[in-house]
Amino acid sequence: MMKVQFWVIGKTTDTYLLPGLNDYLKRLRRYCQFDYIELPAARIGKNATEIEIKNKEEKAVLEKLQKSDYLILLDARGNEYSSESFASFLSNHQMRGTKNLIFLIGGAYGFSDHVYKRADGQFSLSKMTFTHQMVRLIFLEQLYRGFTITRGEKYHH
Question: pTM here?
Answer without folding.
Answer: 0.94
